[in-house]
Amino acid sequence: xxxxxxxxxxxxxxxxxxxxxxxxxxxxxxxxxxxxxxxxxxxxxxxxxxxxxxxxxxxxxxxxxxxxxxxxxxxxxxxxxxxxxxxxxxxxxxxxxxxxxxxxxxxxxxxxxxxxxxxxxxxxxxxxxxxxxxxxxxxxxxxxxxxxxxxxxxxxxxxxxxxxxxxxxxxxxxxxxxxxxxx
Length: 183
Known about the structure:
By secondary structure, the protein is an all-alpha fold. It has helices spanning 3-10, 26-39, 44-52, 55-58, 66-76, 81-100, 110-118, 125-132, 137-149, 164-182. The chain has one domain: Hypothetical protein af1432, CATH 1.10.3210. It is 63% helix and 0% strand. Helix 5 packs antiparallel against helix 6 (81-100) and helix 6 (81-100) packs across helix 9. 40% of the residues are buried. Residues 27-95 form the HD domain. This is HD domain-containing protein.
């Protein structure tokens, strides 16, 4: 099975119809996140990170581990380490924003506030500088903010099929990067 087919199967899992405490099914949240990132000028890898950032929840990962598990899944599907790292960092970005932006708490949904405790609470001050200097800081923050905005049950989401060309682009980018590294 090709990777796009594997993503298609993944996004059809019944567990994605669960709301996980939010006001819309997880699949709609994932689609909205990817769409917001793409519409805001994000590249294909960033949009795919948005599309897959919470799939760990559908695999019954805990709130604490869903980002890590989603990142591992993205790698197993053939996506780049950048896609995987962005998925892995979306919880760290939430914890960072809670620590550094006093207005951010008001942006979080009730469920996201509740899960923050399980995810470790605000990022420790000793970890803030390391996160800020990480290579994916800006895109991790973009993903996190789109994640927070993508919980609107009235916005809806287009059908997943319109994102498959973006998935193809992200895979092509990953393949090209791997080929360059082999040379």
